[in-house]
Amino acid sequence: MALLETIDIPHLPSSLPVHVALYRNVENADYLKQQLLAGNSEFEYALIDASMVLSRAHAITAIFRAINDYMNGRLKSRNVHSEIVFSFSSTNNIADSFRKFGIADSTEDLLVVKVSVAPEITHDSVAAYLEASIKGTPVPFDDETLSQISDVAKIKKFYKLGALPDPKPISAEANGVYTDDAKRRLELSLLGAIALRGS
Amino acid sequence: MTDEYKPPPLPSPFTNTSPAPVLLTQGAEAHLYKTVSLDPSIPAALKIRPSKPYRHPILDRRLTRQRIVQEARCLVKLVREGVSVPAVLSLDWEGQGGEDGGWGGAWLLMEWIDGPVVRVVLEQWEAWLKKNSSSLDQAQLEQEEERVRGLLRRMGHALGGLHKAGVVHGDLTTSNLMLRLPATSSDPGPTGVSMEGEVVLIDFGLASQSAQDEDRAVDLYVLERAIGSTHPRSEPLFESLLQGYRESYKGATSTLKRLADVRLRGRKRSMLG
C-alpha cells in the first residue's frame, strides 16, 4: 500500500495537483536511477534523496518554484520533474543539483513527486506506478518522519549554512523552544535560498 | 461620478488563488496583499511590484527586478543572521501578467507577521496619556514612561541587530516596525495598550547592504525625525532607543558619534566643496 498524498498547492491551478510519496529502506534505487537515465518516459518522476529534505515546507517550496517556472515556460532542465530536483538547489548548476538531491544508487530514503501535467496522470495511476516500481516501505510525508531522515549536516553544507545553530533531535528533556527555533531558522534560510536561485 | 479604484491584475500564478488575495495597502512602487502561504493554513504577505506602463519596457523590467531582488536578498540575509524580519517564502522577479500573458510585474511572498505596527501602539499610548495626564500622579506617569522606554530599548536592539548584520533599512519609521503578538498575552496595564512582543522590522523596499557608519547613522536619524513628528510625547524618550542600540553591537559607538554629525547637517551630505 502506497501512502500517496495528493496536494493542491495554494496559488497553483487545481488542474495541476501534485502527488507525493515518501519511502524508507528503498532496495531498488539503482534500477530506478537506470530508468531515469535511460529517459524511460514511464519513469518521468522527480526522485529525490530524502536525506537532503529538511521538512515538508522545504519540499513544497522547491516543487512550487518548479511548477511556477513550468507554467511560465522557463524550465532550465528537460521537464517539470527534473526541474523539481533542480529547484531544491541554491545554485544554477543543474548536474550538481542532480548529484546532490537526485536519487543515487545508494539512496535508501526516497521522496517521489509527480505533477499531473496531463489528464491521464491521476492519483490512481501514480499509486499503481509506485506500487509496481518502488521496493521500499511507504511512510507519511510529514515533518516528524522527515526529521528522522534528513541529514542536517549535509543539508547545511550544500546550502552553505554551516554557521547556523543545529536543530537538535527532539528529546524528552528539551522543552522544545530552542530546537524549534534553530530548525525554523534553518528552514526559512533554505526557502530563501531556493527563492533567490538565479537572481 | 465615483471611479472605484481597480488595482492592476494579479500576476501569475495568483490569478488561481482561492480565495483571492486581499489588497491591504498600496504605495508608489508596490501593492501589499494578504493571502496564504504554500500551506493553506498559514497566512502570508504578498508584495507585488506591478509593471509601470509609462516606463520603457526594458528599463521597467530591469528596475523592478533589481529592486525586488535587492529586497529579497536583504531579507534572506537577515533571516540567516537571526534578525527578526519576515522570511521570504517565494519570489518571482519576472512575473507574467494576468490575461495577455505578458510581463505583469514582480512578486515576493513573505511570512505573515501577526501584530500591530509600533506607530499604532505609540499613538494609542499617547492618546491615553493626553486624556489622563491631569489625573495621573508622578509615580504612575513614571511607570508608564518606563514601559515605553522598554519598548524603545527593544527597538534599538532590533536596529542594532540589523546593522550588525550589514544591512541598512533606508526608510525607518514606526510604521515599518511591528510587534509580533506573543502566544500568551500579559496584562497591558491601565492604558490597555500592550507593548509585548518581539520587535519585527518590515518593508525592506529601500534597504541595501552597507556597513558604513554614515548609512547606519542616517537610518537612526530618519527614525528619530519620524518619531519626533508622529509621536511628540514619546520623543523625549528616544534616548532609550539609542541606549538599546548602543548595547547591541560593537560598532554602535562610532555610528552614534556619526549620528551627532548627521543631526547637525541633516540626512543629505553636503555636496559643497
UniProtKB/TrEMBL annotation, chain A:
GO terms for cellular component: cytosol; EKC/KEOPS complex; nucleus. InterPro entries: CGI121/TPRKB, CGI121/TPRKB_sf. Pfam families: CGI-121 (PF08617). One of its GO terms (biological process) is tRNA threonylcarbamoyladenosine modification. It comes from the Eukaryota. Keywords: Nucleus, tRNA processing. It is found in: Nucleus. Component of the EKC/KEOPS complex that is required for the formation of a threonylcarbamoyl group on adenosine at position 37 (t(6)A37) in tRNAs that read codons beginning with adenine. The complex is probably involved in the transfer of the threonylcarbamoyl moiety of threonylcarbamoyl-AMP (TC-AMP) to the N6 group of A37. CGI121 acts as an allosteric effector that regulates the t(6)A activity of the complex. The EKC/KEOPS complex also promotes both telomere uncapping and telomere elongation. The complex is required for efficient recruitment of transcriptional coactivators. Belongs to the CGI121/TPRKB family. This is EKC/KEOPS complex subunit CGI121.
From TrEMBL, chain B:
Its main location: nucleus. It is found in: Chromosome, Telomere; Cytoplasm; Nucleus. GO terms for molecular function: ATP binding; hydrolase activity; protein serine/threonine kinase activity. Pfam families: Kdo. GO terms for cellular component: chromosome, telomeric region; cytosol; EKC/KEOPS complex; nucleus. Gene3D superfamilies: Phosphorylase Kinase, domain 1, Transferase(Phosphotransferase) domain 1. The keyword Repeat does not apply. Keywords: Activator, ATP-binding, Chromosome, Cytoplasm, Hydrolase, Kinase, Nucleotide-binding, Nucleus, Phosphoprotein, Serine/threonine-protein kinase, Telomere, Transcription, Transcription regulation, Transferase, tRNA processing. It catalyses: L-seryl-[protein] + ATP = O-phospho-L-seryl-[protein] + ADP + H(+); L-threonyl-[protein] + ATP = O-phospho-L-threonyl-[protein] + ADP + H(+). Its EC number is 2.7.11.1. GO terms for biological process: tRNA processing; tRNA threonylcarbamoyladenosine metabolic process. Component of the EKC/KEOPS complex that is required for the formation of a threonylcarbamoyl group on adenosine at position 37 (t(6)A37) in tRNAs that read codons beginning with adenine. The complex is probably involved in the transfer of the threonylcarbamoyl moiety of threonylcarbamoyl-AMP (TC-AMP) to the N6 group of A37. BUD32 has ATPase activity in the context of the EKC/KEOPS complex and likely plays a supporting role to the catalytic subunit KAE1. The EKC/KEOPS complex also promotes both telomere uncapping and telomere elongation. Belongs to the protein kinase superfamily. BUD32 family. PANTHER family: EKC_KEOPS COMPLEX SUBUNIT TP53RK, NON-SPECIFIC SERINE/THREONINE PROTEIN KINASE. Component of the EKC/KEOPS complex composed of at least BUD32, CGI121, GON7, KAE1 and PCC1; the whole complex dimerizes. This is EKC/KEOPS complex subunit BUD32.
